[in-house]
Amino acid sequence: PDSAIADCVASSGDVDNIVETGVQVTCDSNEPNPYLGGIGTTTTSTDVSVDIEENAEVVSTGVGVALENGGTLDNAGILQANDTAVSATDSSGDGGITISNSGTIRSTEGAGIIADLSDSDITNSGDIISDDVAVTLGSNSELTNSGSITANDAPAISTSGNATIDNTGTIDSDSDVAISLQGGGNRLNLDSGSEIDGDVVATPGGAASDLLVLSGEGNEAENYTGFASLLMQGERWTFNGDVQAEIIALESGTLTLNGNVTTGGVDITAGTLAGTGAINGSINNLSGTVSARQVS
Q1: Are 84 and 64 within 8 A, CB to CB?
Q2: Structure pTM?
Q3: 2 burial via Cβ count (<10 Å: 0-12, 13-18, 19+)
Q4: CA 119: distance to chain centroid?
Q5: Predicted pLDDT of residue 165
Q6: How far apart are CA 167 and CA 147, in angstroms?
Q7: I want to staple 244 with a disulfide (CB 3.0 to 4.6 A). Which of 145, 150, 225, 271 is the partner?
Q8: Residue 248 — φ and ψ, nearest 5°?
């Protein structure tokens, strides 16, 4: 193997032009560090794994890591690119990539992670920072975030349909929208620790089956619109912005709505519906408590 690539070494071939299947790339903190260049595969390679170890740095003026036809990326160090930091594409049609980030993934001028192929799994406990969209999810993919995801001029997260987002971390965008749910069939799970700075929008036309599920407790200041269902299964949640969901189902805890609420109906089987907001829709109280204000 060509191991003359400083602190990023491939088990076979060149780090920036991997053509074989099953190649392993390891980047450690040995000098020279950082490694200046990208890590890339071709359309003929599959199941390539990239491991950026703690204290290792990969800095690219183009794309940071480009993976074709599946594979894995485990980043515990720093991955920084001027262009897209992580690009995952699928020319074979098999789909699926696994990304685990406990370090920092940063794009100074482009997107953070573009994984718009299907059946991908992204876990973030570190920081993902980008100028464009921070994380793009393909269909039937899942993102689990307990860290921080930040975008400057675009949504922090964008989906293309049938994606699941589990959030106990921070999602932040300097644009109006923090999360853009597109394509329908998406599920957004919020649990204790979740902080979202920016609106959450399920795109009209694809929102017929988009679901918002609340567990634990939290306080959100932004607008949540376009959902088919909002399911309250937590202890205590407060929304100070506008909420739009065809069905709001309260099964436990206290749901406080202080903004304008547009819904086809609120069904309460347990818990308390509270808040100073205006609820435009019916309230069906089966076995709970209502102190919210209904206006229609």
Answers
A1: yes
A2: 0.93
A3: exposed
A4: 14
A5: 98
A6: 9
A7: 225
A8: -115, 120
